[in-house]
Amino acid sequence: MCGLWDLGLGFCSNGYVDTVPETRYTKADDGVHIAYQVFGEGAFDLVVIPGFISHVELAWEDAALARALRRLGSFSRVIMFDKRGTGMSDRTERLPDIDRRMLDIEAVMQAVGSEQAALFAVSEGGPMAILFAAAHPERTRGLVLVATYARITACPDYSIGMPTEQLYESVQYLEPRWGTGVGLSGWAPNVADDPGARECFARMQRLAASPGSAMALMSSYMDMDVRPALPLVHAPTLVVHRTSDRMVPVAHGRYLSEHIDGARLFELPGTDHFWWTEDTGQVLDEVEEFLTGVRSVPEADRVLASVLFTDIVDSTRRAVELGDREWKLLLNRHDALAERQVARHGGRLVKTTGDGILATFDGPARSVRCARAISDGAKALGVAVRAGVHTGEVELRGDDIAGLGVNIASRIEVLAQPGEVLVSRTVTDLVAGSGLDFDDRGEHDLKGVPGRWQLFAARF
Question: What's the pTM value of the predicted model, to 2 decimals?
Answer without folding.
Answer: 0.66
